[in-house]
Amino acid sequence: MTKHMAFIYNRDMNKKEYAKQYREKNRERIRGYQRQYFAKIKEKRALQLHMGYLRNKDEIQERARERGWTQKVKVLTHYGNGKCVCVMCGFDDLRALSLDHINGGGQKHRREIGRTQSGVSFYGYLIKHGFPQGFQTLCMNCQKIKQFENKEWTKGRGSIKAEREDEKS
Fold first, then answer.
1. How far apart, in whole angstroms, are the C-alpha atoms of residue 100 and residue 79?
2. Domain boundaries, the chain
3. What is the mean predicted confidence (pLDDT) over 150-156?
């Protein structure tokens, strides 16, 4: 036992319980040691991770692709009412299926939740948050038709709605 211990180990005390109490009592000192240690090995660890990635790059990328497709199927199946198909036309080619915000405003929604990217990143978010309401599975054709009919274009991308208004003036 060291002089740093604030209490004496009781033989009747469970080792897990003792360790937990010790960590609680010495939290700041332990964090200080951890910060020093990780600051010391930061560059070495980053290099080790990078070298490991380079050695296994193809395998890592393949696993990431598989994980992405698995997540996409899971999300599109959920929002496709139990089937991985477009809810409007029944199209089932996974390469052309996508997720649609039912009420529009997808770009704004991704900004609000801090996800500026779509695809696998967004699918992971939906899975993690228990498949929130407000989405549907659409093929790209139905997605574009819906955007056109509802005039869902952003101003910065040169919307058709803005062009029509310019023609009227």
1. 9
2. 15-55, 63-153
3. 68
Residue 80 backbone zone (phi > 0: left; psi -120 to 50: alpha; other: beta): alpha
Amino acid at 13: M
- List Cβ neighbours of 106 (8 Å cut-off, separation of 6 or more): 100, 118
Is pLDDT of 63 > 70? Answer: yes
How far, in Å, CA of 149 to CA of 131, rounded? 26
Distance CA 60, CA 52 (A): 10
Residue 85's Cβ-count burial label (10 Å; 0-12, 13-18, 19+) is buried
Sign of CA dihedral 33, 38, 39, 44: positive
Contact yes or no for 70/113 (Cβ under 8 A): no
More reliable by pLDDT, 6 or 74:
74
- Dihedral (CA of 61, 62, 67, 72) sign: positive
Report how far residue 60's alpha carbon sits from residue 166's, in angstroms, rounded to the nearest whole number.
50
Name the range with the highest mean pLDDT among 5-14, 85-94, 98-107: 85-94
